[in-house]
Phosphatidate cytidylyltransferase (Pyrococcus horikoshii), 202 residues
Amino acid sequence: MSLKLELKRKALHMTGLSVPLIYLALGKSAAITFVLIFLIIFLALEPFRLGEGLRIKVKEKLGIPEEVTEKIEREIDGIAREREKRGIGAHIYFTIAALLVIYLFPREVAIGSISVATLGDAMAAIIGKSYGRHRFKNGKSVEGSLAYFITGLLILTPLVGLKMALLASLVGMIVEFYGLPPDDNFSNQLAIAITLYLAGVR
């Protein structure tokens, strides 16, 4: 994926920061409600994203001009990973993980985990694409991984302290690097949250 398309994808991905912001401003219940609403919306729309036949029927019923829908579909296809074109979108994995993290873990853990998974992933991709010179077989770079790690430290240190931030950022970086299944947008948040909780953050 080109840097331009990666930037578009990460700009969309960054909307995930609205979740910890709402948690900070309005509390746990509001954050859970917010995430639940969007999860329901995403699940309702997912068959239309994947099913061309359904999209055609909707276009015909709503009378949407062909050129408009074609432009939207090109944009979506352009920023989608290959696996997302045939299966569940990353936004659904992210939303389910965010819901679990908010519900199951303490405030600082939830806010930190979601923020690092969102911003750290974006920084890793952007720095890796722009400045990655030392690459691994999976296409990831030392520079991108370091960008993730530093981002994690900056976010987590004020929330949980330097020692815990170092540990969780390292775990998050490793999970992001290997892209653990079912999707790194799911596994990254949970890996950081579980690490902090097991390490004693309450």
